[in-house]
Structure formats: C-alpha cells, structure tokens
C-alpha cells in the first residue's frame, strides 16, 4: 500500500488516513488505489465495525487533487479513464460497505475530498473546516454517479452552488446545506469523533447492515431496488442472537454485547 495512505485499528474502529500533509493531503492515483485497498482490508476484517477517514496534519482532510500529477496520471484519454475508474471503484467500496463509515473532516475538504466525504455514511467537521468543488477552474467532468450522490445529500440547488457557482462553504454553511451532520469546536473535535465512533463500534452490526442497505436501496432508481433483500435483512435482525441479547441487556440494565449473529 502507498505511503500516502495509512491505516490503524483502535479496537473495532478502523482508520484510513490520507497522509500527504506537505500538500494538504492532495489526492493522486496511488492514494485512490490505496484508499480502496484499505477499505477492502477493513471490509474483510470481522473485528472492525466502523471505519473513519481523516487527513494527516491539522490543516486538511483532502485539499483537492494533486494537480501537479495530472499530466502524468490524466494526460490522455486512456490514463484519464484509468484514473476515473480507480477512483470510482475505491469510492464504491466505501459506499457499498457493510461497515459504518465516518468522514472526520478537520480543515480543507476540496474537490476529491468532498467526493470521498459524500460516499461516507456520516460526515462531521471541525469549525475551521471549509468545503469546495472548483471543477470549473480545471475543466474536469463528473459522472452521473458522483453528481447523484451530491444531490441526494445536499439537494439540487446547493450542488449547483458548489459546482457551477464555485462557492466555498464554511463549516456552518456546510451544516445548513446537509453536507455535514455536526460542526464541533476545533478543540472538541477529535475527542468527540473518538466518542461517537466507539459508540457506533459497539452497536448491533446486523442492524447497521439492514439500515445501510435499505437506505442505499432507497437512493437507487426504482427499477433497480431490491426490496426483497431489504425485507430479508429486516427479518434477519429479529431472528438474530443479537436481538435476543439486546432485549436481555435492557431487562438486566446492562450494556449489550453484540456479535453480529
């Protein structure tokens, strides 16, 4: 795996870290590939229930693409298609994951950083963070899948503001436009992220899978929705040992211990 993507585990929480602080974690081809490989590794790790994405240093989550590598990595049609496919494949691994994914945004979140955040289940940021999608400044294009994810979360008008108007959003503006779920004071951000991800990691994984798949299904075109699978996951929850454990723990006034069975 590239040195520009770091991973670690804290109990049931996996961390994927964009590690190019000297360039404010500007993303390039090997980082897209490394991000996908890291997500696949955690997806196959039964001990991991929550995956957190963050940026190294204290200035940026991902401050856009590493434009200095564009000529090398996206200079012709074939290389551009390879770059786009690598990035989309990596984001699909996050978007379709059974794990709960969290974008912990502490600083600049620009371009590809916004794209990564949008495929995560949850997005939280520090007060100093800012967001932008300056696509028109570079001349890049967006596929349907990327723009649909943005509109699903932010809405049609807000997506146009960022993409066509080139508006840079403050953390508070990002919250108002539903790009993030909460804004934390800078000094409280990481302790809060640690607390909320720990809470997620001890929750019922079958319930998380049911919720994630059903909401993902809702976001698809109606003709592609597998509602039978949604019903199956619903029934699995109520037939599970975890459901029995949850009921027992409630009656016994203790915290449940879920196993995913």
From TrEMBL:
Keywords: Lyase. PROSITE patterns: ENOYL_COA_HYDRATASE (PS00166). It comes from the Bacteria. InterPro entries: ClpP/crotonase-like_dom_sf, Enoyl-CoA_hyd/isom_CS, Enoyl-CoA_hydra/iso, Enoyl-CoA_hydra_C. Pfam families: ECH_1. One of its GO terms (molecular function) is lyase activity. Coiled coil: none annotated. NCBIfam families: PRK06127.1. This is Enoyl-CoA hydratase. It comes from Novosphingobium malaysiense.
